[in-house]
From TrEMBL:
Residues 1-15 form the signal peptide. The lineage of its organism: Eukaryota, Metazoa, Ecdysozoa, Nematoda, Chromadorea. Pfam families: TTR-52. Keywords: Secreted, Signal. It comes from the Eukaryota. The keyword rRNA-binding does not apply. This is Transthyretin protein 5.
Length: 142
C-alpha cells in the first residue's frame, strides 16, 4: 500500500503542474450586416460568447454601426475546442416592448483558430431582423 501511495502521490503532483499547459488559446471572429424594414439597423447589441457548462465567457461585444455592420472577435483558453456563439439583441419592429428580441447564432468549428488571433471570419451575411427567426427568445437582462 505504501509503495502504491509513493507512486500515485508524485504523479498527482506532476499532473497538477502539467494540466494548465494542456489548455490552449483559441479564437474566432464573426461579421455581418443587420437590416430592419430594409434599412441598416444601427445599435443592435452584439455579444460573442464561448459556451461553457455553467456560465458562458464573454469574448467581445459591440453595437452595429450606422450601416448595420459589425465585426466581433475574441479568444478563450480551454481544455477542448471552444464552442462560440453570437447573440444579437434588437428591437426591430418591437420598440414598445421592454425586453429585447434575442437571436443566437452558433459559429461552426471550422471558424475556430488555434492562437489568440482568428485566421478566418465567419460571415453571417445580411440578416433581416423583421423575420421571426428559429429559436428567437426575449431577454430583459442582456
Amino acid at each position: 500500500m505504501r509503495l502504491l501511495l509513493a507512486f500515485i502521490v508524485p504523479l498527482g503532483v506532476i499532473g497538477v503542474d502539467i494540466l494548465p499547459q494542456i489548455r490552449t488559446v483559441q479564437s474566432t471572429a464573426v461579421q455581418g450586416k443587420l437590416l430592419c424594414n430594409g434599412a441598416p439597423y444601427e445599435k443592435a447589441r452584439l455579444k460573442l460568447y464561448e459556451v461553457d457548462p455553467l456560465i458562458d465567457t464573454l469574448m467581445d461585444e459591440a453595437l452595429s454601426d450606422k450601416n448595420g455592420q459589425f465585426l466581433l472577435k475574441g479568444n478563450d483558453t480551454e481544455w477542448s475546442k471552444i464552442d462560440p456563439k453570437l447573440n444579437i439583441y434588437h428591437n426591430c419592429e418591437d420598440e414598445k416592448v421592454e425586453c429585447w428580441r434575442k437571436v443566437e447564432i452558433r459559429i461552426p468549428d471550422s471558424f475556430v483558430t488555434d492562437g489568440p488571433e482568428p485566421a478566418k471570419i465567419f460571415d453571417i451575411g445580411t440578416l433581416n431582423l423583421n423575420a421571426k427567426l428559429p429559436g428567437e427568445t426575449r431577454d430583459c437582462l442582456n
